[in-house]
Specification:
heterodimer; A: 211 residues; mainly alpha; Four Helix Bundle (Hemerythrin (Met), subunit A); 10 helices; elongated; B: 333 residues; 0% strand
């Protein structure tokens, strides 16, 4: 088990260091890269405790999709312009401090709950109604509870995500005037009669066609 | 501690035994690609170095090794150097789970197909990092394009994989192959195979979806600033990815290492050879598409991915699952 714990410490060390670097590094794109490293090492930790399905889903969803969108947003925003506001020594009147304090307070209490939960871990493990067995793969065991006992929660979370997605699309969708769109049906179904117009051109006068 | 080292050595030995053939075949496949391309266009293609020009890729690689590596002054140097390494590594590590035969696989993990999918979805980072770190307009535009394209087509590949998994009932690649003993999935899931093939073209930035490196508008896309061995690593990684996609297609749809019919002259040929034949078949299709089809426009590419492939493959998931449920064919009961 020595190799196991060595790998555990390596991955958790990488996870912690990269999590710190996310907040510390001044280049926002670097922050996102560290966030990705953090996700990857956490999914390695998942795989090490035998939850390979969760680890892979973590990689696919967070690293493969969410972090790419993060990178997009960060690269598209003109970060260099805002840097002056965020890191300048100019005092902006401290308007951001109350909100920052509130958020950090919430995170602090969450951390206390997480660490406090450690104390009840043996009780929780004993009271689990689902028996963890090595016979079936954990993909199957997740499916067994997700689609039976927790089907309502599963469906509701799906609905919430759907609503959020549609909401985001509605919020950002703008109908712009003067945008030319291509319609394959229109293009293909165009006949000779409507495409070609025979015009009697008068010499040295030219023809005026209203488009 | 001693046993760890012995395990480590046997594993390293196995990995080398897998990686060296993969790298050599990547070099050969570049030659094959150029030959097929030339054949379609009635040219000769590379035919000078070695018999039939077989050593052309080796000569090219040698040239790349001796070229100077130029790192642009305004680039983000660490990320710039890291990008080709990431591309290459990700292209190679996915070969760990490809089964070449019964019990002939490096890592027979339970979630093999998810691993493949996850690693191929990580592949986008090599390109984004390269494009961003170059700190230049063309590479950046190419990287953004490529990222959007790869993320879009991954969605439909994921749904196609769900179709196959519904018929198998397991995420293990060996199980997926063994489930096709009676009927290859290409027959019942033929539309999905076609969509998988096209999505694989888009996922690997092959023509007609090679917009990230569209030379007419973006010079060479995300590779513009790269030179020498770093460019060669991008290039090797790209072809390794193409081979991997072909391997994935043959495992998912063409029955992996299984012979087409289970009678004497066919089943005497060992499994790995069948897999190699199938990979080659798919690769020649890839090469033919490159020679035949002109490049897509970017908005058409996005439209194809999101508005046609995704709804259709979702519909096919519903169709497959209702079919399996109605005829009571669901696996894993």
């Amino acid at each position: 088990m020595i190799a196991h714990s060595v790998f555990f410490y390596i991955f958790s060390l990488i996870a912690i260091i990269s999590a710190v670097m996310v907040t510390v590094s001044k280049n926002t794109v670097h922050s996102v890269f560290f966030l990705i490293l953090d996700f990857i090492s956490i999914s390695c930790l998942f795989i090490m405790i035998g939850a390979e399905f969760l680890g892979m889903i973590m990689l696919i969803v967070y690293v493969g999709a969410v972090a790419v969108l993060f990178l997009f947003v960060v690269m598209m925003l003109n970060v260099a312009e805002q840097k002056g506001q965020w890191f300048s020594s100019r005092w902006d009147g401290g308007t951001h401090i109350p909100i920052g304090l509130l958020v950090s307070l919430i995170i602090f209490f969450e951390l206390i709950i997480v660490i406090g939960g450690w104390k009840y871990k043996p009780d929780l493990l004993n009271s689990l109604s689902i028996k963890i067995s090595n016979e079936i793969t954990n993909t199957r065991s997740i499916g067994n509870v997700l689609y039976t006992d927790y089907i309502l929660l599963f469906q509701i979370s799906g609905m919430i995500l759907l609503v959020a997605m549609i909401g985001a699309i509605v919020l950002t969708y703008r109908e712009r005037a003067g945008v030319k769109r291509q319609s394959y049906v229109k293009q293909i179904s165009r006949e000779r009669d409507e495409g070609v117009d025979l015009v009697e051109a008068e010499r040295n006068k030219g023809v005026k066609i209203d488009a | 501690m001693d046993s760890y080292f012995s395990i480590l050595f046997t594993e390293v030995y196995k990995i080398l035994f897998l990686l060296v053939p993969v790298l050599v075949s990547v070099a050969m496949i570049v030659w094959l690609d150029r030959r097929v391309w030339a054949f379609v266009q009635k040219r000769r293609g590379p035919n000078v170095v070695g018999p039939f020009g077989l050593f052309q890729s080796l000569a090219d690689a040698l040239k790349y090794i001796f070229k100077e590596i130029i790192i642009p002054a305004s680039s983000n140097k660490l990320v710039f150097v890291l990008a080709p390494v990431v591309t290459m590594t990700l292209a190679l590590i996915s070969w760990a789970v490809i089964p070449f035969g019964e019990d002939f696989v490096l890592a027979d993990i339970n979630v093999g197909i998810l691993y493949l999918f996850a690693v191929s979805s990580l592949g986008v980072y090599g390109i984004i990092m390269g494009g961003w770190a170059s700190n230049s307009k063309y590479p950046f535009l190419g990287a953004i394009r490529s990222a959007a394209q790869m993320v879009s087509y991954e969605v439909s590949i994921g749904v196609i994989i769900i179709n196959v998994l519904l018929c198998v009932g397991s995420l293990n690649l060996s199980d997926i192959v063994m489930a096709q003993q009676n009927l290859w999935f290409v027959i019942p899931l033929f539309p999905m195979f076609v969509i998988f093939f096209i999505s694989a073209l888009a996922e690997t930035n092959r023509p007609p979806f090679d917009l990230p490196e569209a030379e007419a508008e973006l010079v060479a896309g995300y590779q513009t600033e790269y030179s020498g061995m770093m460019y060669a690593m991008f290039w090797l990684g790209e072809y390794a990815n193409i081979l991997l996609m072909c391997a994935m297609g043959s495992v998912l749809f063409l029955g992996g290492w299984l012979s087409p019919i289970d009678i004497f002259p066919f089943n005497a040929i060992p499994g790995p050879f069948w897999l190699i034949f199938k990979i080659l078949f798919l690769f020649i299709l890839f090469a033919l598409v490159k020679a035949i089809v002109p490049r897509y426009r970017y908005d058409q590419l996005m439209k194809l991915g999101w508005k046609i492939f995704l709804p259709f493959s979702l519909f096919y998931v519903v169709l497959t699952s209702s079919f399996l449920l109605y005829f009571d064919l669901l696996p894993g009961k």
